[in-house]
Amino acid sequence: MRVLVPSALVSYTGTSTIEAAGDSLLAMLADMDARFPGIRFRIADEQQQLRPNLRIFVNGQGVRDLSHPLQPSDGVAIVLALSGG
């Protein structure tokens, strides 16, 4: 599946769009981490929870549950949430 990577994580991937595999978001993150070591820890914590400053969209729908199932044709966007005052 096609994964859009936020600019803050491009230092891991070298590009803002990658191909990844997996039948769930957790499996996709494991696939990404196998090729881009350390990226998974920047996206999810030790309790398998999405970090609070990130959002994930699957086919345009916001998803917080990392066990969310995926299909090979899905488009995934990892988005860094903006904050500040």
Automatic annotation (TrEMBL):
<dbReference type="InterPro" id="IPR016155">
    <property type="entry name" value="Mopterin_synth/thiamin_S_b"/>
</dbReference>
<dbReference type="InterPro" id="IPR003749">
    <property type="entry name" value="ThiS/MoaD-like"/>
</dbReference>
<protein>
    <submittedName>
        <fullName>MoaD/ThiS family protein</fullName>
    </submittedName>
</protein>
<dbReference type="Pfam" id="PF02597">
    <property type="entry name" value="ThiS"/>
</dbReference>
<dbReference type="InterPro" id="IPR012675">
    <property type="entry name" value="Beta-grasp_dom_sf"/>
</dbReference>
<dbReference type="InterPro" id="IPR052045">
    <property type="entry name" value="Sulfur_Carrier/Prot_Modifier"/>
</dbReference>
